[in-house]
Write a structure and sequence with these properties.
By secondary structure, this protein is of the alpha/beta class. It is built from 16 helices and 37 strands. The longest helix is centred in the N-terminal third of the chain and has 22 residues. It starts with a strand and ends with a helix.
Length: 725
């Protein structure tokens, strides 16, 4: 049955009154014309104007034309087939594949057409089946997400009049939410057909390995391996722990029960940095239903135990001593000290590896006029890789040689002369937001930085780079000068701090120590706070947060597609969509190259198929406008332990709970023949009258306005040709 309705915004009575008024006004205006025209022409002109005004008034009331179309929809059954690996194993009840096929045949659901049923298969994802045949099930998916399969019917159930749901599954879900909640929300009777044996088969399995995601070299890390042993009471089991497939430790246990669960503890002492694969294996025993769950793995990212900070000094100074004294109080810091003695020689010469391993460079009174150029080139190379730098000048700093490093510093040198004078730091109230001056995180922080003892500076003039921030200027004889004293810069993940002055130790001795000597225990230690804030700000790299290239998971099954997911942001944390991301994947005798595709908002994706089983590592390089802006790396495994083999029995209790939720029923292969009759006998399994409503907002269509304009134009043309005013 079809019906139609025309509605407006407002009152029909008011619209009719206005229409009559418009027609009346038009008749009145054409009652007497100059010159006098024929009555038929007058009538035609009156009709043109009246119709045009009526259309405009009609459109102003926002008319909406509504059509209702009703149809009868036959009741349908949604049939969901478990397509996961566990449906193809052989347990105590026999071959699940054979039982699965038999249950489908006995249920007669394969006789249903697409007009009577909706067919779907589920595993990791839920997919529609256009024409169902048992061969359309691969039974190879490595996850079972029952909840998503049920949720896929939420919007479909009303449009297609789905009245019942049938699920063929073993009930051993290992992905998604608990399907009982999804069945409750669906509000449809779910008829479950259990496939598999309810008794636990003889099996030995590593259920999970629990280990920290991040570890440090030479720092012990606990490893918990949860194991389950069924049917091997009194057997001698050897449990081994591997780091990158290298045996680290083995333990023996003897289960004291037929059903034995326990947690085995290992201690992992990392010796190498990088992404490490931690594997726990149990030796195989005859009679196990499968050996594929006898091991389980996790990945650990091992970092260097200490951050390496290298101090390069042009000569031994008090500033170097005080800075080093502070650094030695920080846990997890290894300080290298390379100080020039005389000429180009050093008390300790920096090796290539020591420079390359440095994570933060502190240049104090460095370089001087005798500093070797090749050393500056090596430091410049490391700074070019994004490593941070803190510069504190001195009387003997050679600003000409410093130009080799100026690309990575927050200033450019205008001129310099080794003439020393006293200055006092001048902190602007605006600088309170700088991370270098943070004390309590309030606006009052700036007060603590005032009235510091004087320090020294040479007659050096620098220009802060446009992207730099001037944290402090200085005063001479209490006269403020708008010249940089402390400057910071953070661009393209390269951080730098420059202090154009020296004698900072005076803040410690003449300021903080003097106050402590007077008994003021709450005195502010400006030197320590500046060093602490500077080191912390320089040490926190935002590169990893801005560039992330990961795989969707760490463990893949053989034949499964590997998905790479990338996120790239610029220094302002704005998404970058025009980056070029190349990934090199290697493992065993395989090496593959692929590029990621931008999907907008700084996100990238790539897929890789056809890899053999084994361990793989990948290195990703991110380039933008021909400039390398970052890298990332990681590891993943293919064909190791499949999650489907963690639970190998049919979960009949869960399937019964799902069926009991909304009036369904639980079946096995032995009694499934009554399934269709039980469904069709339900009271709510009946046709449904579906009414669809279509609204057409006539006022939004341009042809109404066009028609009104055409009518007005026709009236004006006739009036013009008739010589009317």
């Amino acid at each position: 049955m079809n019906s139609y309705n025309l509605g407006i915004t407002g009152s029909w009575f008011l619209l009719i009154v206005l229409l009559l008024a418009a027609v009346g006004f038009t008749i009145f205006t054409y009652y007497r014309t100059n010159p006098i025209i024929h009555r038929s022409k007058k009538t035609f002109l009156t009709a043109l104007r009246s119709l045009a005004l009526a259309i405009l008034l009609f459109a102003l009331f926002e008319p909406v034309f509504t059509g209702f179309k009703s149809s009868v929809i036959v009741p349908k059954i949604a049939i969901l087939f478990d397509n996961s690996v566990s449906m193809g194993i052989t347990d105590a009840g026999g071959s699940r594949t054979a039982i699965y096929k038999s249950a489908i045949e006995k249920s007669k659901i394969s006789q249903l057409s697409n007009e009577d049923a909706v067919f779907k298969k589920f595993g990791e994802l839920t997919k529609d089946i256009k024409e169902f045949q048992f061969d359309s099930l691969s039974i190879r998916e490595n996850f079972t997400d029952m909840s998503s399969a049920l949720r896929s019917l939420f919007t479909q159930k009303s449009d297609e009049n789905i009245r019942a749901v049938v699920m063929f599954t073993d009930g051993a879900f290992n992905s998604g939410q608990n399907p009982v909640y999804a069945a409750e929300e669906l509000s449809l009777p779910v008829f479950t057909v259990g496939i598999g044996d309810t008794t636990e088969p003889r099996d030995i399995s590593v259920q999970s390995v629990i280990v920290n995601e991040i570890a440090y070299i030479d720092n012990p890390v606990p490893i918990n391996a949860n194991i389950k042993v069924i049917g091997y009471k009194g057997a001698n089991l050897e449990i081994s722990f591997f780091d990158n497939n290298k045996l680290i430790e083995s333990k023996s246990i003897i289960p004291d029960d037929e059903f034995y669960e326990s947690t085995i503890y290992f201690t992992y002492l990392p010796k190498e940095a990088g992404n490490r694969k931690i594997t726990v294996k149990i030796n195989q025993k005859d009679g196990e239903i499968t050996y594929k769950n006898n091991s389980s793995s996790e990945f650990v990212k091992v970092l260097k135990n200490k951050r390496i900070i290298s101090i390069f000094g042009g000569a031994p100074t008090a500033d170097i001593s005080f800075v080093k004294q502070y650094l030695n109080t920080i846990p997890g810091i290894e300080v290298n000290e390379f100080i020039q003695s005389s000429g180009a020689s050093f008390y300790k010469q920096a090796s290539e590896n020591e420079i390359a391993d440095t994570e933060l460079f502190l240049l104090i009174g460095f370089p001087n006029s005798t500093t070797p150029d090749n050393l500056l080139d090596k430091i410049a190379r490391e700074l070019g890789r994004g490593k941070p730098v803190l510069l504190i000048t001195s009387l003997n700093t050679d600003f000409v040689k410093l130009r080799k490093l100026e690309e990575y510093l927050p200033f450019n040198t205008a001129s310099s002369r080794a003439v020393e004078f006293n200055i006092t730091a001048d902190f602007s109230p605006k600088a309170v937001t700088s991370p270098l001056l943070r004390v309590n995180g309030t606006d009052d922080d700036i007060e603590k930085w005032k009235n510091l003892p004087p320090v020294f500076r040479t007659e050096t003039f620098v220009r802060a780079k446009p992207e730099s921030e001037m944290v402090a200027s200085f005063k001479v004889n209490n006269v403020p000068l708008n010249e940089p004293f402390i400057i910071t810069r953070n661009i393209n993940s390269r951080k730098s701090v420059a202090i154009i002055g020296y004698g900072l130790y005076r803040w410690k001795l003449l300021g903080y120590a003097a106050e402590i000597a007077k008994g003021r225990t709450d005195a502010f230690d400006a030197f320590t706070k500046l060093m602490e804030n500077s080191i912390r700000w320089l040490s926190v790299s935002d590169l990893n947060r801005r560039i992330s290239i990961t795989t969707s998971k760490k463990m893949y099954s053989h034949g499964e597609r590997v998905e790479f997911i990338g996120q790239v942001y610029d220094a302002s944390y704005l998404p970058v969509d025009n980056a070029v991301i190349n990934i090199s994947v290697s493992g065993g005798d395989e090496k593959r190259e692929l590029s990621m595709i931008s999907v907008g908002s700084g996100r990238y994706t790539a897929n890789l198929d056809g890899l053999k089983s084994g361990d793989f590592s990948y290195d990703a390089s991110v380039v933008r406008t021909s400039q390398k802006i970052g890298t990332d790396n990681g590891r993943f495994t293919i064909g190791d332990t499949e999650l489907e083999y963690k639970n190998l029995r049919m979960e009949s209790a869960l399937l019964r709970a799902i069926s009991d939720m909304n009036g369904g029923k639980f079946y096995t292969e032995s009694n499934v023949s009554s399934l269709l009759d039980d469904i069709k006998s339900m009271k709510n399994f009946k046709e449904k009258l579906l009414t669809k409503r279509n609204d057409f907002a006539l006022w939004s269509y341009p042809w109404l306005l066009v028609l009104a304009l055409l009518l007005f134009a026709a009236e004006w043309t006739i009036r013009k040709r008739s010589g009317m005013l």
